[in-house]
Amino acid sequence: MLKTIANLYEEGERNFSGLEQNGADLGESNLSEADLSGSKLRGAKLDETDLSESNLSGTDLRGASLQKVDLRAANLKNADVRRANLCEANLSGANLSDANLNGANLSKANLSGVNLTQVDLRGADFSEADLSGANLQKADLRQTKLSKCNLGGADLNKANLSGVKLSEANLSGVNLTKANLNEANLSGIDLSGAILAEANLKMANLRLATLNGVDLNKTNLTGADLRQVDLSEFDLRQTALNSANLSRANLKRAKLIEVDLSNTDLSQANLSEADLNKANLSNANLSEAKLSGAKLDQVNLEGATLPNGKKQGFFTKIQQFTH
Questions:
Q1: Three-state SS for 235?
Q2: Are the beta carbons of 41 and 62 closer than 8 angstroms?
Q3: What is the pLDDT of residues 114-127, one digit of tens each?
Q4: pLDDT, tens digit, 9 for 90 and up, residues 159-188
């Protein structure tokens, strides 16, 4: 059948829609701009095949081998690509909206500028893949492997990244507005210029992360690990930080007016010149914290541990630590 398809293609035929070739060997062939929409290619071998600008919408590619395949600008809308092997594939500019990539291997693949809107990516492997500028709005990325992945400038608005491990990934300039990053591991990640407005980072690990120019407006950082993070001069007035770990964090000149910092670990944190007026620091740990020049009017310090290791009562003024 391969020979027939190849011959037909060479003769100018491009319409192969509805093709049934489950398990067929179509590797290293040229099917550029071919119409394979609605085809059944489950378990097929398409390694190193040229499928650039082809129409694979609604195609069944479950378990197919597509290593190093050329899918540039291809249409894979509504395609079923579950558990397929797309290692080192080139999908730059492809349309994968509403496709199912659950459990697919996309390690080292080129997905720059790809449309992955609302795609099911659960359990997929994007290790070392290039997703720069990709559209991942509302995509389901739970349990996805994104280590060393390039997500620079990608749009992850309302995407679900709960529990995702992003070790050594590039997230600079990424849009994570309203994204779910609950318990995500972002330790040491460069998030410079990222938009995290209204994102859920509850219990996330952001230790040593770079947050230069990050938008944290209405971000939920409840219980998050923010140890040694630089938040100097940040406006955190609408950021949820209760129960967060901000030990040794830099909060110099930060705006924390009326912010709930209850049960927060601020030990050895730099809060010099920070505005903490009317903030809730009940049961917070401020041991060895720097408070020189900080504004602490009407602060709730009930049960809090102050820089000298002592406990304080309700609305106690602690100006002695601000000099």
A1: strand
A2: no
A3: 999 999 999 999 99
A4: 999 989 888 899 999 999 999 999 999 999
Dump the DSSP string for 108-128. T-B-TT-B-TT-B-TT-B-TT
**pTM for this prediction:** 0.85
Which bin fits 63, alpha (ψ -120 to 50), beta or left (φ > 0)? left
What was the pLDDT predicted at 311? 79
One-letter amino acid at 308 equals N
Question: What CA–CA distance (Å, rounded) separates 195 from 189?
Answer: 14
pLDDT digits (tens, 9 = 90+) for 16-27: 999 999 999 989
**Residues near 149 by Cβ (< 8 Å), separated by ≥ 6?**
126, 127, 128, 129, 130, 131, 166, 169, 170
Cβ proximity of 92 and 114 under 8 Å: yes
Helix H segments across the chain?
Answer: 2-10
CA 88 – CA 73 distance, rounded (Å): 16
Instruction: State the pLDDT at residue 1.
Output: 46
User: What are the CA-CA distances from residue 87 to residues 6, 46, 109, 159, 291 (Å)?
Assistant: 24, 12, 6, 23, 52
Residue 154: partners with Cβ closer than 8 Å, 6 or more residues away? 131, 132, 133, 134, 135, 136, 174, 175
- Residues contacting residue 232 through CB under 8 Å, at least 6 positions apart: 250, 251, 252, 253, 254, 270
Task: Look up residue 122 and give its two tokens.
Answer: 């659960």
Tokens 């290293």 appear where? 28
Q: How confident is the model at residue 2 (pLDDT cuts 50, 70, 90)?
A: very low
Tokens standing for 164? 């995702």
User: Tokens 């100006």 appear where?
Assistant: 319
Could you give the CA distance from residue 203 to residue 314 in angstroms, rounded to a whole number? 28
Residue 54 above 60 pLDDT? yes
| Angle in degrees, CA 287, 268, 253, rounded to 5 | 110
Give 258's Cβ-side CA count (13 Å radius): 2
- Inform me whether the pLDDT recorded for 314 exceeds 80: no
Distance, in Å, from the CA atom of 75 to the CA atom of 71, rounded to the nearest integer, reads: 8
**Which pLDDT score, from 0 to 100, does residue 9 have?**
87
